[in-house]
Design brief:
By secondary structure, this protein is mostly beta strands. It has no helices and ten strands. It has strands spanning about 5, 10, 20-25, 35-40, 45-50, 55-60, 65-70, 75-80, 90-95, 105-110.
Amino acid sequence: QVQLVESGGGLVQPGGSLRLSCTASGSIFNFYMAWYRQAPGKSREPIAHITSGGDTRYINSVKGRFAVSRDNAKNTVFLQMNSLNPEDTAVYYCNTLSQTLPWGQGTQVTVAS
């Protein structure tokens, strides 16, 4: 079964940027892939997804600041995050839009001064 590994998180000041990566152990080119996040005390929520053809969708709170992309040759999905604010602090995960793959460990993003 395909395994997912997220990376690229860290501590960043408000207004800063991070680029997250999600690398799969197998081919994901047919999947709609999504990024999710789980803030402290909250449920995990989808925030962005990219179709197999490259179309993207975002929740309102990240629209215009985040950009999802994919490199099918490398079985990798990216999340470019700009203009980060403390409300973006969360553990970030990737999965298919239908959440069909085992969850990875996620990558912690902390936005604080």
